[in-house]
Here is the input.
Amino acid sequence: MNRLFTRPIVLLSTLFIILGGIYAWATPPFEASDEYWHFGMVEYIHDHQSLPVQDPDAPDTLYRQEGSQPPLYYALAAMLISPFDLSDIDDYCVPNPHVRAGQPDSTNNKNFVLHDVPNRYSAQSMLAVTIVRLFSIGLGLVTVLCVYANTR
Here is the structure.
């Protein structure tokens, strides 16, 4: 067996995948840190087949500051979800008007968007969100493996 794939890295990789999967499953869509804007960037590339042009005088976009970040991740994610119809994404991106996100003393209204859809995985757009999350877990696993190989 290859020396890279020793018992510790197999255990670490398995634990990473399990914990990442639990987090991805348990976190409602667009509630993970900046997911709303990250997915907005993926959606823009998916819909327009191009990168956005940032205009400081333009009104807020769905991708906000993410449009200025390096685009490789977003382009790859857009390619992964290219078969999906995202026309209903606005039904799942309704901002919570009473949100108190970022206020640690808050005991209610911490959700960034409204979640009134009972089965969030029945729509193609929500499957696309799940695929992008799994892609991110995969990239995280590559990072873990590279760090492990580098330290060995």
User: Anything to note?
Assistant: The two ends are 16 Å apart (CA to CA). The chain is about 45% helix and 0% strand.
